[in-house]
Design brief:
The protein is an alpha/beta fold. It is built from 10 helices and 7 strands. The strands form 2 sheets. It has a 4-stranded parallel β-sheet. The two termini are 41 Å apart.
Length: 288
């Protein structure tokens, strides 16, 4: 039975293919029979660039057709007709056929999420999970927990606001539901943490708004940690606060690593270096 590795990202364009190339480079030095697989590719008319590149560079024994299961349009039709389970089964069977010929299969996740709802997650023996909205939820839950730990390193009590365009049960929709599930997962993993989500920014920081929208919440109106739904939103908001309020911005601060490692921009100033070194020192002390 072949070993396998599944590479996924929280959102499209997050660099999965670059990671896949790096992993393939390492595998090619140690393993002879390597397979590469994508559950869904964009088009049947235009060859998938990543599959072609990996196939040519590493001289894989599989055919192009063996390296993917579905094209986007066909998968979309399946999901729209309520045949998600059949779609997943066919993807799984296609993967298993490739696995039987290899010692190791690298599977790069798809950005496809269907028409009306995301693909359901399945987990089978030796089968890497199909990318869906729930992966996003688990990732956001882990980010919230890591952010709480970082906050505690600086003596701040973490009161975590999982940000959304809706507060509590006032709104519905896939984006709100994802934040709600992420908050629930985080609470289940760390029941001792104070976590609220989905919650809007005004309800998270303004006690008056919080009293109206979430009067029973331990977080609303008093949030100290803000988890934004995507990099685009978080990056834009921190820059807006930094410039509008003349606030000091420190970071990026990396979380979830075994050792404290942080990054600096090429355009950083001396103050940025000093602040980042101080942050890293606090992280190191917390590991003792």
């Amino acid at each position: 039975m072949a070993y396998s590795l599944y590479i996924a990202g929280i959102e499209p364009g997050s660099g999965k293919s670059l990671v896949a190339l790096g992993v393939m480079e390492l595998l090619s030095r140690r393993i002879r029979q390597i397979g590469y697989f994508r559950p869904v590719i964009p088009s049947k008319e235009i060859a998938d660039n990543t599959i072609q590149l990996i196939d040519i560079r590493y001289n894989l024994e599989s055919t192009y057709e063996e390296m993917y299961a579905y094209v986007h349009d066909d998968a979309q039709v399946k999901v729209s007709k309520g045949s998600s389970e059949a779609l997943l089964k066919e993807i799984f069977n296609k993967y298993k056929a490739l696995e039987s010929k290899c010692q190791f299969v690298l599977c790069e996740g798809t950005d496809f999420s269907g028409v009306s709802q995301p693909l359901s997650l399945i987990s089978m023996p030796m089968w890497p999970p199909i990318w869906d909205a729930r992966f996003w939820c688990w990732s956001m839950a882990d980010i919230a927990i890591s952010a709480a730990a970082t906050t505690q390193m600086f003596g701040i009590a973490p009161r975590i606001a999982m940000r959304s365009y809706s507060t509590g049960a006032s709104g519905k929709g896939q984006e709100v539901d994802k934040v709600r599930e992420a908050a629930a997962i985080a609470r289940e993993k760390k029941p001792e943490l104070k976590i609220e989500g989905p919650i809007q920014y005004d309800a998270a920081v303004d006690a008056g708004v919080a009293k109206t929208k979430l009067p029973q919440s331990e977080v609303a109106g008093r949030a100290t940690v803000f988890i934004f739904p995507d990099f685009n939103t978080g990056n834009n908001l921190y820059k807006a606060v930094q410039r509008s309020a003349n606030a000091v911005a420190i970071g990026p601060v990396l979380q979830g690593l075994n050792k404290p490692v942080n990054d600096l921009s090429r355009g950083c100033k001396v103050t940025d270096i000093v602040n980042t070194v101080a942050i890293t020192a606090v992280q190191a002390q917390a590991l003792k």
